[in-house]
Amino acid sequence: MAGIASDMIRGNTDTILLRFLCEKDSYGYEINKQILELTDGQYGLNEATLYTTFKRLEKNGYITSYWGDENSGARRRYYTVTEAGRAAYAENCREWLNARTLLERLIKDGTD
Amino acid sequence: MAGIASDMIRGNTDTILLRFLCEKDSYGYEINKQILELTDGQYGLNEATLYTTFKRLEKNGYITSYWGDENSGARRRYYTVTEAGRAAYAENCREWLNARTLLERLIKDGTD
DNA sequence: TTAGATACCTTGACAGGTAAGGTATCTAGG
DNA sequence: CCTAGATACCTTACCTGTCAAGGTATCTAA
Lengths: 112, 112
Fold this sequence. Notes:
Two copies of one chain form a homodimer.
Chain A: H1 6-9, H2 13-23, E1 26-27, H3 28-38, H4 47-59, E2 63-67, E3 77-81, H5 83-107
Antiparallel strand pairs in A: 1-3, 2-3
Helix pairs in contact in A: 2-5
Chain B binds a DNA duplex (30 and 30 nucleotides) through residues 3, 6-7, 10-11, 13, 27-30, 45-53, 56, 70, 72-77.
């Protein structure tokens, strides 16, 4: 089986992370758990992908980060979406809708 | 601007080419023109992508190829989809529908 | 004290896509 | 005749995002 839908979701990981951060500040592990819940365990980000994506988003000015002040448990790095990040999220959503339309035309539907 | 939807379509190029070949034998240039028509010029495969994809499909046993016998104009390499190719197309379509559902949940809709 | 969960991070490799180059044939215009 | 443009195919070197595999550290429960 290997990577269910992984190559099809590529190019949307930024958008997915931004989506959750648009709702509230969060950290990697939590977001990934939410992704797993929303997809009934069908999809989750590889940790390496998760953290490189955060890095990329931060480098692009779409998010900022700070260390949480947990007094118990493992330390957490929280992320906050910026205004540029919200704009990028909206733009990515538009692009996704467009890509979806195009793919629907191109792929047709070969399911029986 | 650069690549509109290019990274979102990655992982679907095989499926797109198979779709056209499921309808009839065809060759690279023609398929790419059909893609451009269907998308109102919004999307077309890079030539390098086009031909490496054909190679991959042939290596995987999803298509076979033969030289057309044009008596005028540039030579054309035609491709034929195999039974395995049709099965792969159907399976890819199912995966696409699934990925689309997951993405719809994950991305929500941040368009205004 | 040990196992498991939480939580983060880095490295090296890989696959698919792309830019930029190339070849060859035919047609239309000057 | 020559040139420009369309048709049609191909290769190379590079870039990017993903992933497997490793690592660190803390807390909780058995």
